[in-house]
Amino acid sequence: MQTMPKPSAPAPQNHAESDIAHGRECIAQEIAGLSALSESLDGDFAKAVTTLAQSKGRIIITGMGKSGHVARKIAATFASTGTPAHFVHPGEASHGDLGMITPSDVVLALSNSGETAELSDIVGYCKRFSIPLIAMVRRKTSMLVGAADVAMVLPATPEAPPTDAPTTSTTMMMALGDALAVALMQRRGFTKDDFSVFHPGGKLGKAFIRVSDLMHKGAQLPLVAEGTPMRDVLLTMTTKTFGTAGVVDQSGNLLGVITDGDLRRHMSPDLLTMGAEAVMTRNPLTIRASALAAEALGVMNQRSVTALFAMEGQTPVGILHIHDVLRAGIA
What is the pLDDT of residue 273? Predict the structure, then answer.
């Protein structure tokens, strides 16, 4: 029975400098590949984006070996950016999974050589049912390029030495998949707000939560009109439980806020008979309702406040407490 050769014991010397040099050589080679890839983008790339954008179904991404691993990542990127997509293994496709591909879909096939035998059944299926086929391939003269409706050919850039193991080529495939996804997002007007919908439980989704998603509004707002006696202001501050009250003019514009600190600074026997505008702090610290909640948290931490009025122009439309942000998992 043949056994794997055992690696020889390393010589008792420091290989650090050599290891770092080889690592840098590999990365430099891949950077060169990415630069060449960027320069090579042409009308075929734009045609691929158009084909994907016109799809009425899903993007089916397939590949064998290392190309298959890259294909899985590209499928995940498409799916998380608003384009329904999934990976179909070419071997499984030949044993029933072809039924997962419909005439409404588009197939994106990855292959280094363009001659991957396992892709033949998917290619034939696409031709039989007129399913658009996009190829991502390294060899311009190949079976896959000849069969594809659109072919994106990677530039002829060497793999990282000392062997021809997939390194530069898979990096270029990964980057080209990202480029397709980003161009498709731009074509469809996909935004950060849309992105958060697909990442509600992840850090990325939380990073895109806005003040307007968390703020209290309507009857919950602790607002009083200018001229309101302080006895009534105190009642509003007590019942609304935010420890603050906003003072607005007849147009609903925010003139100032009254906080516990303002009450302490104006503490006197006449406090309850004073008008709200005599106690309030003018030009208060506020936050845009459209701002990210993370930005609001940063402001509150920096200025040592626990609540901010959320604004649309000069009008308060909500109030955000620091506890609301922390409960949302933003820290």
Answer: 86
> Residue 294 pLDDT more than 60?
yes
What's the whole-number mean pLDDT along residues 174-179?
96
CA distances from 155 to 83, 174, 252 (A): 27, 14, 62
Output the domain CATH number for residue 125.
Answer: 3.40.50.10490
pLDDT, greater one: 192 or 201: 192
Query: Which range marks the domain in which residue 135 is found?
Result: 26-190
**For residue 12, is it within any domain?**
no
pLDDT at 74 over 80: yes
Gyration radius (Cα) of the chain, Å? 30
Beta strand ranges found along 69-146 (DSSP E): 85-87, 106-111, 133-137
Least confident of 38-42, 76-80, 308-312: 76-80
Tell me, yes or no, whether 204 lies in a domain: no
DSSP code string of 202-266: SHHHHHT-BHHHH-B-GGG--EEETT-BHHHHHHHHHHH-SSEEEEE-TT--EEEEEEHHHHHHT
- Whether residue 254 contacts residue 286, with contact meaning beta carbons closer than 8 Å, is answered with yes
Overall number of domains in the chain: 2
Q: Are residues 50 and 121 located together in one domain of the fold?
A: yes
Cα(65)–Cα(173) distance, integer angstroms: 13
Asked whether residue 42 falls in the same domain as residue 175, the answer is yes
Going by C-alpha positions, the residue among 212, 233, 285, 229 that lies closest to residue 254 is 285
